[in-house]
Amino acid sequence: MSKLDWNPALHALASGPMDDAHQEFLTLTNILAASDDEDEIRSLQQLLAHCEAHFAQEEFWMRESGIVGAENHQRDHEGVVSLLQSALSDLKRGQHGAGRELTESLGDWFQHHSSTMDAALAFQMQQFARTQPPESIPSIG
After folding, report:
1. Can you give the residue ranges of every domain in the chain?
2. What is the pTM of this model?
3. Could you tell me which residues come within 8 angstroms of residue 141 by beta carbon, excluding any fewer than 6 positions away?
4. Which of 6, 49, 103, 108 is the most buried (most CB within 10 A)?
5. Is the dihedral of CA 139, 74, 40, 86 positive or negative?
6. Separation between Cα atoms, residue 97 and residue 124, nearest integer Å
């Protein structure tokens, strides 16, 4: 797999915490891709934990901002978590490479997901912040 580099011109969504989470996703995906058999389980577990926390935060933002299409966005997250959990199960049964094999498709998924669903969420959050008193804006940190 080619390395997934953070490119602000392509990836930045003008949402600091979301952009930070996306950078971490790319970093952890690269670590998994470069892992050897000995480190693959640990690397996949780190990526899975990151995704669960990252997606939970985005789903909170979706609820708070009232974005249309939140169900589809959440299902997209659930699909990735399910793939990661399945690969982790395979690895624990001794199927080395199960996590590394996902990294190419995770990179493709990220490119599409972040430029569509996450971009819409970032825009919705910006609009929501403009219409709410400062004390009612959802925490994004």
Report:
1. 38-108
2. 0.88
3. 16, 17
4. 103
5. positive
6. 38
Give the pair of three-digit tokens for residue 88.
């982790």
- Degrees (nearest 5) of the Cα angle 110, 108, 64? 20
* CA distance linking residue 90 with residue 70, whole number of Å: 30
**Is the confidence at residue 129, as pLDDT, over 80?**
no
Using CA atoms, how far apart are residues 7 and 11, in angstroms rounded to an integer? 6
The residue whose two tokens read 């009612």 is: 136
Among candidate residues 120, 131, 108, the one with its CA nearest the CA of residue 1 = 108
How far apart (Å, rounded) are the C-alpha atoms in residues 61 and 65? 6
The Cα–Cα gap between 47 and 44 comes to 5
- Dihedral of alpha carbons 49, 50, 51, 56, sign: positive
| Tens-place pLDDT, residues 50-89 | 999 999 999 999 998 889 899 999 999 999 999 999 999 9
Pairwise CA distance, residues 4 & 32, whole Å:
11
